[in-house]
Amino acid sequence: MRTVGVEEELLLVDPETGEPKVLSTAVLARAEQDDPGQEVFEKELYGQMLEFATHPQADMADLSTEIVRCRKEAARHAGEIGCTVAALASSPLPVSPSLGRGRRYEWMAEQFGIAAQEQLVCGCHVHVAVESDEEGVAVLDRIRPWLSVLSALSVNSPFWQGKDTCYDSYRSQVWQRWPSAGPTEPFGSAERYHRRVADMVASGVILDEGMVYFDARLSQRYPTVEIRVADVCLHASTAVLVALLARGLVETAAREWRAGREPADHSVNLLRMAAWRAARSGLDGELLHPATMRRMPADSVVAALLEHTGQALTDSDDLERARVGCAQLLDDGTGARIQRRLLEQTGSLREVVTACARHTRT
Hints:
Layout lengths: L3 E10 L10 H11 L6 E3 L5 E5 L6 H20 L4 E3 L16 H10 L1 H4 L5 E7 L3 H11 L3 H8 L4 E2 L2 E2 L5 H6 L14 H13 L13 E3 L5 E8 L4 H23 L9 H14 L4 E3 L6 E3 H11 L1 H6 L3 H14 L2 H12 L2 H13 L1
Antiparallel strand pairs: 1-3, 1-4, 1-5, 2-3, 5-9, 6-7, 8-9, 10-11
Helix pairs in contact: 2-9, 5-9, 6-10, 9-13, 14-15
Protein backbone atom coordinates (compact mmCIF):
# COMPACT_ATOMS: atom_id res chain seq x y z
CA MET A 1 0.00 0.00 0.00
CA ARG A 2 1.30 3.46 -0.88
CA THR A 3 2.45 5.60 2.03
CA VAL A 4 1.24 9.16 2.49
CA GLY A 5 2.78 12.14 4.25
CA VAL A 6 1.28 15.55 4.90
CA GLU A 7 2.90 18.98 5.26
CA GLU A 8 0.82 21.71 6.88
CA GLU A 9 1.54 25.42 7.14
CA LEU A 10 0.03 27.15 10.17
CA LEU A 11 -0.43 30.79 11.11
CA LEU A 12 1.14 32.04 14.33
CA VAL A 13 -1.36 34.35 16.02
CA ASP A 14 -1.95 36.19 19.27
CA PRO A 15 -4.30 34.00 21.36
CA GLU A 16 -6.34 37.03 22.50
CA THR A 17 -6.44 39.37 19.50
CA GLY A 18 -5.99 36.89 16.66
CA GLU A 19 -3.36 39.08 15.03
CA PRO A 20 -0.53 37.25 13.21
CA LYS A 21 2.76 37.32 15.13
CA VAL A 22 6.31 37.30 13.74
CA LEU A 23 7.54 34.54 16.04
CA SER A 24 8.48 31.57 13.87
CA THR A 25 12.17 31.77 14.78
CA ALA A 26 11.36 31.75 18.48
CA VAL A 27 8.88 28.88 18.13
CA LEU A 28 11.39 26.81 16.18
CA ALA A 29 14.07 27.52 18.79
CA ARG A 30 11.70 26.32 21.52
CA ALA A 31 10.90 23.17 19.54
CA GLU A 32 14.62 22.49 19.12
CA GLN A 33 15.21 23.08 22.82
CA ASP A 34 12.49 20.59 23.75
CA ASP A 35 13.60 18.03 21.17
CA PRO A 36 17.18 18.56 19.92
CA GLY A 37 17.59 17.54 16.33
CA GLN A 38 13.84 17.48 15.68
CA GLU A 39 12.84 17.39 12.00
CA VAL A 40 9.08 17.90 12.34
CA PHE A 41 8.87 21.70 12.38
CA GLU A 42 10.42 24.00 9.79
CA LYS A 43 10.49 27.71 9.03
CA GLU A 44 8.57 29.09 6.10
CA LEU A 45 8.83 32.12 3.85
CA TYR A 46 7.24 34.40 6.46
CA GLY A 47 7.87 34.94 10.14
CA GLN A 48 4.15 34.53 10.89
CA MET A 49 4.12 30.92 9.67
CA LEU A 50 5.18 27.53 10.98
CA GLU A 51 5.32 24.31 8.95
CA PHE A 52 5.30 20.71 10.07
CA ALA A 53 5.65 17.45 8.17
CA THR A 54 4.37 14.04 9.20
CA HIS A 55 6.20 10.78 8.69
CA PRO A 56 4.99 8.59 5.80
CA GLN A 57 2.04 6.48 6.89
CA ALA A 58 0.21 3.61 5.23
CA ASP A 59 -2.75 3.62 7.61
CA MET A 60 -5.03 6.67 7.63
CA ALA A 61 -5.79 6.30 11.34
CA ASP A 62 -2.06 6.59 12.03
CA LEU A 63 -1.83 9.64 9.76
CA SER A 64 -4.74 11.25 11.59
CA THR A 65 -3.10 10.62 14.95
CA GLU A 66 0.15 12.17 13.78
CA ILE A 67 -1.47 15.29 12.30
CA VAL A 68 -3.39 15.87 15.55
CA ARG A 69 -0.22 15.32 17.58
CA CYS A 70 1.84 17.71 15.42
CA ARG A 71 -0.84 20.40 15.67
CA LYS A 72 -0.95 20.07 19.45
CA GLU A 73 2.85 20.15 19.70
CA ALA A 74 2.94 23.24 17.49
CA ALA A 75 0.38 24.90 19.75
CA ARG A 76 2.37 23.92 22.85
CA HIS A 77 5.64 25.32 21.50
CA ALA A 78 3.88 28.49 20.38
CA GLY A 79 2.09 28.84 23.72
CA GLU A 80 5.40 28.78 25.58
CA ILE A 81 6.38 32.05 23.88
CA GLY A 82 2.99 33.74 24.02
CA CYS A 83 1.23 32.86 20.77
CA THR A 84 -0.76 30.00 19.29
CA VAL A 85 -1.35 28.35 15.92
CA ALA A 86 -4.36 28.58 13.64
CA ALA A 87 -5.03 26.37 10.63
CA LEU A 88 -6.12 29.25 8.41
CA ALA A 89 -5.06 29.48 4.79
CA SER A 90 -5.09 33.29 4.93
CA SER A 91 -5.23 35.78 7.77
CA PRO A 92 -8.75 37.17 8.25
CA LEU A 93 -7.23 40.22 9.96
CA PRO A 94 -5.06 42.81 8.22
CA VAL A 95 -1.38 41.82 8.29
CA SER A 96 1.96 43.04 7.03
CA PRO A 97 3.87 39.89 6.04
CA SER A 98 7.42 39.64 7.37
CA LEU A 99 9.77 37.85 4.97
CA GLY A 100 12.35 35.58 6.53
CA ARG A 101 16.05 36.33 6.38
CA GLY A 102 18.56 34.70 4.09
CA ARG A 103 19.88 34.91 0.54
CA ARG A 104 17.03 32.87 -0.93
CA TYR A 105 14.29 35.00 0.60
CA GLU A 106 16.10 38.21 -0.29
CA TRP A 107 16.36 37.04 -3.91
CA MET A 108 12.65 36.25 -4.00
CA ALA A 109 11.76 39.65 -2.55
CA GLU A 110 13.85 41.45 -5.15
CA GLN A 111 12.75 39.26 -8.06
CA PHE A 112 9.00 39.14 -7.40
CA GLY A 113 8.38 42.45 -5.62
CA ILE A 114 4.90 42.93 -4.20
CA ALA A 115 3.86 39.42 -5.25
CA ALA A 116 6.37 38.03 -2.75
CA GLN A 117 5.28 40.54 -0.12
CA GLU A 118 1.68 39.36 -0.33
CA GLN A 119 2.18 35.59 -0.23
CA LEU A 120 1.30 35.03 3.44
CA VAL A 121 -0.92 32.03 2.70
CA CYS A 122 -0.92 28.53 4.18
CA GLY A 123 -1.31 25.32 2.22
CA CYS A 124 -1.51 21.59 2.78
CA HIS A 125 0.79 19.44 0.66
CA VAL A 126 0.21 15.71 0.32
CA HIS A 127 3.05 13.34 -0.62
CA VAL A 128 2.04 9.96 -2.06
CA ALA A 129 4.69 7.31 -2.71
CA VAL A 130 5.44 6.24 -6.27
CA GLU A 131 7.75 3.48 -7.52
CA SER A 132 9.71 5.54 -10.05
CA ASP A 133 9.85 8.88 -11.80
CA GLU A 134 8.17 7.27 -14.82
CA GLU A 135 5.24 6.13 -12.70
CA GLY A 136 5.18 9.51 -10.97
CA VAL A 137 4.95 11.46 -14.23
CA ALA A 138 2.29 9.10 -15.53
CA VAL A 139 0.34 9.85 -12.36
CA LEU A 140 0.82 13.61 -12.76
CA ASP A 141 -0.54 13.44 -16.29
CA ARG A 142 -3.66 11.54 -15.21
CA ILE A 143 -4.68 13.30 -11.99
CA ARG A 144 -4.71 16.80 -13.50
CA PRO A 145 -8.52 17.12 -13.98
CA TRP A 146 -9.31 15.88 -10.46
CA LEU A 147 -7.13 18.27 -8.47
CA SER A 148 -9.75 21.02 -8.50
CA VAL A 149 -12.08 18.74 -6.53
CA LEU A 150 -9.45 18.34 -3.79
CA SER A 151 -9.17 22.12 -3.76
CA ALA A 152 -12.94 22.48 -3.35
CA LEU A 153 -12.95 20.10 -0.39
CA SER A 154 -10.20 22.04 1.40
CA VAL A 155 -11.29 25.69 0.88
CA ASN A 156 -10.39 27.67 4.01
CA SER A 157 -9.42 31.24 3.07
CA PRO A 158 -12.46 33.48 2.49
CA PHE A 159 -10.98 36.61 4.12
CA TRP A 160 -8.07 38.82 3.05
CA GLN A 161 -6.81 41.96 4.79
CA GLY A 162 -9.97 42.30 6.86
CA LYS A 163 -12.47 41.81 4.01
CA ASP A 164 -14.58 39.01 2.61
CA THR A 165 -13.09 38.23 -0.79
CA CYS A 166 -16.20 36.44 -2.15
CA TYR A 167 -13.86 33.47 -2.71
CA ASP A 168 -13.83 30.35 -0.55
CA SER A 169 -10.13 29.88 -1.31
CA TYR A 170 -8.48 33.22 -1.89
CA ARG A 171 -5.16 31.56 -1.06
CA SER A 172 -5.26 29.81 -4.43
CA GLN A 173 -5.77 33.13 -6.21
CA VAL A 174 -2.82 34.70 -4.44
CA TRP A 175 -0.70 31.62 -5.14
CA GLN A 176 -1.25 31.90 -8.89
CA ARG A 177 0.88 35.07 -8.91
CA TRP A 178 4.02 32.93 -8.89
CA PRO A 179 5.17 32.50 -12.51
CA SER A 180 5.77 28.76 -12.04
CA ALA A 181 2.45 27.96 -10.33
CA GLY A 182 -0.63 26.21 -11.62
CA PRO A 183 -1.70 23.29 -13.80
CA THR A 184 0.48 21.76 -16.49
CA GLU A 185 0.09 20.12 -19.86
CA PRO A 186 0.77 16.36 -19.89
CA PHE A 187 4.50 15.60 -19.82
CA GLY A 188 4.41 12.13 -21.36
CA SER A 189 7.64 10.88 -19.78
CA ALA A 190 10.00 11.50 -16.91
CA GLU A 191 12.63 12.72 -19.34
CA ARG A 192 10.31 15.44 -20.66
CA TYR A 193 9.27 16.38 -17.12
CA HIS A 194 12.86 16.89 -16.00
CA ARG A 195 13.69 18.76 -19.21
CA ARG A 196 10.76 21.12 -18.60
CA VAL A 197 11.90 21.79 -15.04
CA ALA A 198 15.51 22.35 -16.16
CA ASP A 199 14.35 24.82 -18.81
CA MET A 200 12.35 26.74 -16.23
CA VAL A 201 15.37 27.04 -13.94
CA ALA A 202 17.63 27.95 -16.86
CA SER A 203 15.32 30.83 -17.74
CA GLY A 204 16.49 32.64 -14.61
CA VAL A 205 12.93 33.57 -13.65
CA ILE A 206 13.10 31.12 -10.75
CA LEU A 207 16.13 30.35 -8.61
CA ASP A 208 16.00 26.56 -8.49
CA GLU A 209 13.78 23.47 -8.72
CA GLY A 210 12.27 24.25 -5.31
CA MET A 211 10.45 27.17 -6.95
CA VAL A 212 8.66 24.95 -9.48
CA TYR A 213 5.19 25.35 -7.98
CA PHE A 214 3.13 23.05 -10.18
CA ASP A 215 -0.25 21.99 -8.75
CA ALA A 216 1.35 18.55 -8.51
CA ARG A 217 5.00 17.68 -9.02
CA LEU A 218 7.66 15.10 -8.35
CA SER A 219 9.17 15.74 -4.94
CA GLN A 220 12.82 16.78 -4.88
CA ARG A 221 13.51 15.02 -1.59
CA TYR A 222 11.30 11.95 -1.55
CA PRO A 223 10.13 9.23 -3.98
CA THR A 224 6.67 10.79 -4.06
CA VAL A 225 4.18 12.76 -6.06
CA GLU A 226 3.52 16.01 -4.17
CA ILE A 227 -0.02 17.39 -4.53
CA ARG A 228 -0.08 21.09 -3.61
CA VAL A 229 -3.57 22.43 -4.38
CA ALA A 230 -5.21 22.28 -0.95
CA ASP A 231 -5.64 25.08 1.55
CA VAL A 232 -4.45 24.16 5.00
CA CYS A 233 -7.60 22.59 6.43
CA LEU A 234 -9.33 23.91 9.53
CA HIS A 235 -9.84 20.42 10.93
CA ALA A 236 -7.32 17.60 10.96
CA SER A 237 -10.06 15.25 9.73
CA THR A 238 -10.35 17.24 6.50
CA ALA A 239 -6.59 17.03 5.94
CA VAL A 240 -6.83 13.26 6.34
CA LEU A 241 -9.73 13.15 3.87
CA VAL A 242 -7.72 15.11 1.30
CA ALA A 243 -4.76 12.77 1.87
CA LEU A 244 -6.70 9.55 1.44
CA LEU A 245 -8.42 10.88 -1.69
CA ALA A 246 -5.02 11.97 -3.03
CA ARG A 247 -3.72 8.43 -2.50
CA GLY A 248 -6.81 7.08 -4.23
CA LEU A 249 -6.18 9.35 -7.21
CA VAL A 250 -2.50 8.36 -7.41
CA GLU A 251 -3.26 4.63 -7.24
CA THR A 252 -6.07 4.94 -9.79
CA ALA A 253 -3.83 6.89 -12.17
CA ALA A 254 -1.00 4.37 -11.82
CA ARG A 255 -3.38 1.52 -12.64
CA GLU A 256 -4.66 3.42 -15.70
CA TRP A 257 -1.08 3.93 -16.87
CA ARG A 258 -0.21 0.25 -16.46
CA ALA A 259 -3.39 -0.65 -18.35
CA GLY A 260 -2.37 1.61 -21.25
CA ARG A 261 -5.12 4.19 -20.78
CA GLU A 262 -4.19 7.64 -22.05
CA PRO A 263 -4.67 10.74 -19.87
CA ALA A 264 -7.48 13.20 -20.58
CA ASP A 265 -6.39 15.92 -22.99
CA HIS A 266 -7.95 18.88 -21.16
CA SER A 267 -6.05 22.08 -21.87
CA VAL A 268 -4.39 24.16 -19.20
CA ASN A 269 -6.99 26.85 -19.93
CA LEU A 270 -9.81 24.54 -18.86
CA LEU A 271 -7.89 23.27 -15.86
CA ARG A 272 -7.34 26.85 -14.71
CA MET A 273 -11.07 27.50 -15.06
CA ALA A 274 -11.85 24.38 -13.02
CA ALA A 275 -9.43 25.55 -10.33
CA TRP A 276 -10.95 29.03 -10.33
CA ARG A 277 -14.47 27.59 -10.03
CA ALA A 278 -13.40 25.48 -7.05
CA ALA A 279 -11.74 28.47 -5.38
CA ARG A 280 -14.72 30.72 -5.95
CA SER A 281 -17.36 28.73 -4.08
CA GLY A 282 -15.88 25.45 -2.88
CA LEU A 283 -18.65 22.97 -2.15
CA ASP A 284 -21.33 25.69 -1.96
CA GLY A 285 -21.80 26.14 -5.70
CA GLU A 286 -21.08 24.41 -8.96
CA LEU A 287 -17.82 22.77 -9.99
CA LEU A 288 -16.50 21.73 -13.38
CA HIS A 289 -16.83 17.98 -13.80
CA PRO A 290 -13.33 16.56 -14.40
CA ALA A 291 -14.47 14.36 -17.27
CA THR A 292 -16.57 16.86 -19.23
CA MET A 293 -15.32 20.23 -17.92
CA ARG A 294 -18.93 21.37 -17.70
CA ARG A 295 -20.71 22.79 -14.66
CA MET A 296 -22.39 20.42 -12.25
CA PRO A 297 -23.51 20.68 -8.60
CA ALA A 298 -20.62 20.22 -6.21
CA ASP A 299 -22.11 17.13 -4.57
CA SER A 300 -22.37 15.41 -7.96
CA VAL A 301 -18.72 16.17 -8.74
CA VAL A 302 -17.62 14.87 -5.33
CA ALA A 303 -19.64 11.71 -6.02
CA ALA A 304 -17.80 11.40 -9.34
CA LEU A 305 -14.46 11.59 -7.53
CA LEU A 306 -15.53 8.82 -5.17
CA GLU A 307 -16.65 6.70 -8.10
CA HIS A 308 -13.43 7.38 -10.03
CA THR A 309 -11.25 6.31 -7.09
CA GLY A 310 -13.67 3.73 -5.71
CA GLN A 311 -11.70 0.56 -6.46
CA ALA A 312 -8.44 1.99 -5.13
CA LEU A 313 -10.18 3.26 -1.99
CA THR A 314 -11.83 -0.10 -1.49
CA ASP A 315 -8.49 -1.90 -1.82
CA SER A 316 -6.91 0.37 0.81
CA ASP A 317 -9.99 0.05 3.07
CA ASP A 318 -10.62 3.81 2.81
CA LEU A 319 -13.87 3.96 0.85
CA GLU A 320 -16.27 4.24 3.79
CA ARG A 321 -14.08 6.82 5.51
CA ALA A 322 -13.99 8.84 2.29
CA ARG A 323 -17.76 8.67 1.86
CA VAL A 324 -18.42 9.73 5.44
CA GLY A 325 -15.85 12.54 5.29
CA CYS A 326 -17.23 13.97 2.06
CA ALA A 327 -20.82 13.77 3.34
CA GLN A 328 -19.85 15.59 6.53
CA LEU A 329 -18.13 18.37 4.60
CA LEU A 330 -21.12 18.79 2.31
CA ASP A 331 -23.50 18.89 5.29
CA ASP A 332 -21.49 20.71 7.98
CA GLY A 333 -19.43 22.97 5.77
CA THR A 334 -15.88 23.59 4.66
CA GLY A 335 -13.46 25.76 6.59
CA ALA A 336 -14.57 28.75 4.51
CA ARG A 337 -18.22 28.20 5.39
CA ILE A 338 -17.37 27.80 9.08
CA GLN A 339 -15.34 31.02 9.08
CA ARG A 340 -18.19 32.98 7.55
CA ARG A 341 -20.62 31.43 10.00
CA LEU A 342 -18.41 32.48 12.90
CA LEU A 343 -18.28 36.05 11.59
CA GLU A 344 -22.06 36.10 11.28
CA GLN A 345 -22.43 34.84 14.85
CA THR A 346 -19.82 37.08 16.49
CA GLY A 347 -19.48 40.08 14.20
CA SER A 348 -15.73 40.00 14.80
CA LEU A 349 -12.87 38.71 12.65
CA ARG A 350 -10.79 38.49 15.81
CA GLU A 351 -13.31 36.05 17.20
CA VAL A 352 -13.11 34.11 13.93
CA VAL A 353 -9.35 33.70 14.33
CA THR A 354 -9.41 32.77 18.01
CA ALA A 355 -12.25 30.27 17.44
CA CYS A 356 -10.33 28.73 14.53
CA ALA A 357 -7.25 28.43 16.73
CA ARG A 358 -9.34 26.37 19.10
CA HIS A 359 -10.57 24.21 16.20
CA THR A 360 -6.92 23.68 15.18
CA ARG A 361 -5.98 22.23 18.57
CA THR A 362 -8.91 19.77 18.74
